[in-house]
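[Q] Does anyone have a clean structure-token version of this?
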Amino acid sequence: MRTISPPIARRRLTLNVLATLATAAAVGFAVVPARAHHSGAMFEDFRTLDLTGTVVRFEYVNPHSWLYVNVENEDGTVTEWSFELDSPTRLRRIGVSPNHWQEGDRVIVRTRPLKDGRPAGFLVGAVSDQGKTFGQANGLTLGE
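[A] Here you go.
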């Protein structure tokens, strides 16, 4: 039976430790961008808006789905708002299909708007004139 001399055994142990540390560091660096990507820092934390409009389109795509709604402003002009949702996989689990919203549907949405003022936000809840609801829709009703 062959024995390994102590210096060789120490070198193997050192190489194993270094390899483990390098792998852990690589995984750590990979996680940082993923966490940053999933940050909601661009949305208002404590302010929501309720907006009424007409669905332009619903994009059921990865990594985030988007609902686009034309909202009439007080001066009569129309602004297209975009609302970020979860991925299709998560939406499917809660019963939202690619056909949940159709072009022309009237909706009222509750959103956490972007901090920079652009017409977009994170969709918190919605109710359509077709009776479909999404998320935290408590208190949302479409006026006639």
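[Q] Thanks! Anything notable?
[A] Residues 49-135 form a domain with the OB fold (Dihydrolipoamide Acetyltransferase, E2P) fold (CATH 2.40.50.140).
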